[in-house]
Design a protein that fits this description.
The chain is 23% helix and 30% strand. The protein is an alpha+beta fold. The chain has one domain. It has a 5-stranded antiparallel β-sheet with strand order 1-5-4-3-2, sandwiched between helices. Strand 4 and strand 5 form a beta hairpin.
């Protein structure tokens, strides 16, 4: 399987593209999401979470939340298509963060 990287989010896209993506999406687990996106790539976009119980982000030195992104009730993981191409995305507080090949 190929590695997906962060592409964009709904704020920087169009309603037409996002609505089409969301309409055909299906919810997936964190474990399935990780088959597509390395945790380091997720950490670049969501640096404020703890991924291995650390208290500071090693790259930025910032304090992390004591919560893993997979355990946050305001987060969902999805598989779909964006502009006709396969993607996975994280919906975080109503914003879709899209990852593609």
């Amino acid at each position: 399987m190929r590695t997906y990287r962060y592409l964009t989010n709904c704020v920087n896209s169009t309603a037409e593209k996002i609505n089409a993506m969301v309409e055909e999406s299906r919810r997936i687990t964190w474990k399935t999401f990780r088959r597509y996106v390395p945790v380091g790539e997720v950490r670049l976009t969501f640096s404020f979470y703890s991924y291995q119980g650390e208290t500071y982000n090693q790259e930025t030195g910032e304090l992390t939340a004591p919560l893993h992104i997979k355990d946050d009730w305001g987060v969902g993981f999805y598989k779909s298509k964006y502009e006709g191409q396969p993607c996975v995305y994280i919906q975080h507080s109503g914003i879709e963060y899209i990852f593609m090949e």
